[in-house]
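[step 3/7] inverse_fold.run input=structure_tokens len=438
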């Protein structure tokens, strides 16, 4: 089963400028050992990746010729209205033609990761792969072996980047099994502030595969907001990992919005490595048809006096499926931990399903940890209340569903990004055929 990957890697070594990074072969060896996860693996028992594993593995090594399709989808994309620098990648390759890197504060670096690794090998040794040590995620190991490019963002100590930095990934794959594996590295120095908006969109409806990894390092007293928006083609597969390591008294907010792809999985693992920091993980998944959206999280409290809060809502229509698995891990040293975990699922169809598994693993004795999960349908009394105020039944339903999504959207601190996300979600809710539900 692993021979096709070994063969592709031999070809990759001959074409990629950064193919000799030592940890690539380590990633390939671990992937070969692990193989694709199955339903027998506890962390994957609700998400069947067998259809993905059956696809041919065709890494898109060659940079595409950018044409009108990419330009059009970019022009129509809501987040392009945001002011600030924008890095655009087509099929995983950096596109200077579509990118716009405006004047940045002194010392801030925003550009291609491949270019950064070529010019500064020490960068790889210091950061790349440092917070993805867990060898139990085959997809992260596959990305480690094969990634070609991605975004590199470095903000020096004390610098405030006023406008969001956008990372936009456009896929124009034409064949089933075409594979894009971006790698993003975000380093925020002590007392710095930065907002990152990472988006995945497509010009095609092929059954391609995106396998993305983002590493986030936040220094002491830093503020980092990371917003990931996934709206891949409805025949595509999207597997992503976000790994973070955060310093003392930092404030980090990570948002995940999953609207696209036939099957999507977001693995989020954060290590609270400094005292008195606060981390918020916040997400929304909207699914229809036979889509499956999965969020799997581990928040490791590795120091005392830290707070983490997880809020994930799902809106599921037709025969779609939502999966949530959240684990709060409190190490023995992490006294005075304050951790909260909430997952809510709203089913718009009798055929939609949700599987939820909040989990606490606590080795300290002076902590405050809570978790909860709900699965239900719209409240008839709430609909009746709105109707008594002269609001029609369809509008009443739409208002309630939008309010349910709004619980997540309102936690985005960057106001322009929050307003655009609210509009994107409202437009997508209209596609869920809300007016036909009773």
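[step 3/7] decode complete -> sequence:
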């Amino acid at each position: 089963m692993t021979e096709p990957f070994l063969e592709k890697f031999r070809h990759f070594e001959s074409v990629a400028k950064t193919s000799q990074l030592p940890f690539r072969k380590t990633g390939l060896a671990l992937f070969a050992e692990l193989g694709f996860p199955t339903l027998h693996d506890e962390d994957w028992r609700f998400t069947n990746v067998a259809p993905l594993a059956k696809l041919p593995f065709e890494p898109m090594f060659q940079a595409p010729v950018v044409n009108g399709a990419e330009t059009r989808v970019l022009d129509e994309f809501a987040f392009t209205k945001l002011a600030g620098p924008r890095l655009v990648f087509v099929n995983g390759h950096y596109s200077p033609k579509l990118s716009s890197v405006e004047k940045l504060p002194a010392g801030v670096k925003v550009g291609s990761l491949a270019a950064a690794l070529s010019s500064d090998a020490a960068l790889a040794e210091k950061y790349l792969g440092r917070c993805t040590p867990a060898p139990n995620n085959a997809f992260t190991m596959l990305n480690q072996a094969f990634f070609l490019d991605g975004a590199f963002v470095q903000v020096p100590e004390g610098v405030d980047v006023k406008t969001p930095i956008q990372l936009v990934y456009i896929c124009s794959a034409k064949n089933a099994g075409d594979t894009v594996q971006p790698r993003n590295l975000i380093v925020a120095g002590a007392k710095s502030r930065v907002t990152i908006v990472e988006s995945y969109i497509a010009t095609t409806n092929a059954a391609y595969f995106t396998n993305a990894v983002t590493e986030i390092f936040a220094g002491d007293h830093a503020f980092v907001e990371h917003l990931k928006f996934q709206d891949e083609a409805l025949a595509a597969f999207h597997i992503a990992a976000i790994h973070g390591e955060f310093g003392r008294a930092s404030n980090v907010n990570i948002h995940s919005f999953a609207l696209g792809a036939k099957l999507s999985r977001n693995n989020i693992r954060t290590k609270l490595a400094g005292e008195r920091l606060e981390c918020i993980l916040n997400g929304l998944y909207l699914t229809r048809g036979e889509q499956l959206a999965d969020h799997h999280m581990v928040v490791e409290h590795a120091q005392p006096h830290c707070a983490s809060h997880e809020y994930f809502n799902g809106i599921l229509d037709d025969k779609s499926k939502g999966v949530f698995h959240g684990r709060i891990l409190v190490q023995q040293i992490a006294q005075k931990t304050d951790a909260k975990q909430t997952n809510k699922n709203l089913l718009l169809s009798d055929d939609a399903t949700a599987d939820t598994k909040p989990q606490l693993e606590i080795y300290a004795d002076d902590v405050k940890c809570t978790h909860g999960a709900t699965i239900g349908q719209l409240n008839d009394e709430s609909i009746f209340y709105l109707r008594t105020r002269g609001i029609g039944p369809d509008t009443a339903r739409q208002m309630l569903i939008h309010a349910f999504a709004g619980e997540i959207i309102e936690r985005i601190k960057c106001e322009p990004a929050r307003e655009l996300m609210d509009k994107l979600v409202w437009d997508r809710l209209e596609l869920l055929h809300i007016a036909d539900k009773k």
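[step 4/7] annotate
DSSP finds ten helices and 21 strands in the chain.
Confidence is low (pLDDT under 50) at residues 434-438.
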